[in-house]
Specification:
Layout lengths: L3 E4 L13 H16 L11 E7 L3 E8 L11 H12 L6 H20 L5 E4 L14 H14 L4 E8 L4 H9 L3 E12 L8 H17 L2 E4 L8 H16 L8 H10 L3 E6 L5 E10 L2 E9 L9 H16 L2 E3 L5 H6 L3 E10 L3 H16 L11
Parallel strand pairs: 4-5, 10-11
Antiparallel strand pairs: 1-2, 2-3, 3-4, 5-12, 6-11, 6-12, 7-8, 8-9, 9-10
Helix pairs in contact: 2-3, 2-11, 3-11, 6-9
Length: 383
Amino acid sequence: MSIAVLYDAANIDRLPWPNDEDGHSAKAWIEPWIRHGAERDVDNIQTRMMAIVINNQYVLPITVNEQEYDNAYVCSPYTHYVTYAKQELGMLKQPLLERSLAWLLSGIGLGMKLARCNRVVHVNNWLLSTNLYPRMTAEHVSAIITLLQARFPDHSIVFRSLNRHYYPELCRSLEETGCALVPSRQIYCLDTRDTRTQNAKARWLIKRDEGLLAKHGYEIVRHEELVPGDIPRMVQLYNLLYIDKYSPCNPQFNERFFAHALATKTLRFLALRTPKGRIDGIMGYFCRDGILTTPIFGYATALPLETGLYRMLSAVLFREAQQLGMQWNESSGAAQFKRNRGATGHWEYTANHGSASADVSSELLVVHFLGCQSDRRSAYGTT
């Protein structure tokens, strides 16, 4: 039998943080948000942060929301499936279809508000575009659902960032508890430990991408070499890509977030620096249960595409994952680029348990899947 216990600001001092790497990281990451609020570190987040502890073994962050329709999409189903989707319609390059889908999204958005879709509890929500899960059993899932249903009977319970490639048992357990799993986007996964995943072309492409570092004189700067004075530029590069180029619906991490991550190593940063000392590219990754992913990524978007900053950053990250012996969740976008280098595509799902908003959200997910969810990171080239 699994035991799940919920902690908030009132009893956080009694939380038994596991004495391992994941436990230490969770404490550094979650505890300040529970005590002081995540809005200090993420400018477009309003949420109540809590933590759920399973058998004194795993600590998962929990976010609780009521409305907050202007929140970043990581806490707001409405932002995820209406606001963000509307912003992506222009990528279709089909004005008539775009107008039709915009009207459809507005109608479904109204229905979602009437159904109180943002009355939601997100489980394992690190406020990142991609969350990684520990090894969870059916008993763990049942204990979580039972606890949260009792504490928040009028809320949907949502698990983001699921896929059957890495988490087949977790997906099956969630379905058995009554969760609806609906596709949200296609992601790309690469097992850097297995040379069979890459053919000769893939290996040649990565070496060619690495060659751009010497060609343009970029130096790889590791986490320990970055200093607080680099933080404003790191934030700027993240914003240039994720906020300005993609969408302001993405989490807007500020300098406080980057400073905390740099000091506590909740994320591990890598950067590319020019011979003159300017940082032109950054990424921040974390690992859990043998999987690596990179929620922080940015580069100088004003530089010519031919410079190849995305290619260089990707090559550096591939070698990092390979040296660490990790599988690599490359998230979504740049589909052909990633496939050419050995990655395989898999559907990512959102699991929704309970509340009337589940039906509306499921309808909207299908619309999003069919009409709006294009590979938004397609400007990197296809080779």
